[in-house]
Amino acid sequence: MIVIFIPFYIVSLIVSDPHALIVRIFTYFPYSAPVTAMLRNSFGSLSPTESAVVIAELFILGSSLCAWPCVCSATGPSHTPRSSRCEMP
Question: H or E element: which one contains 37?
Answer without folding.
Answer: helix 33-42
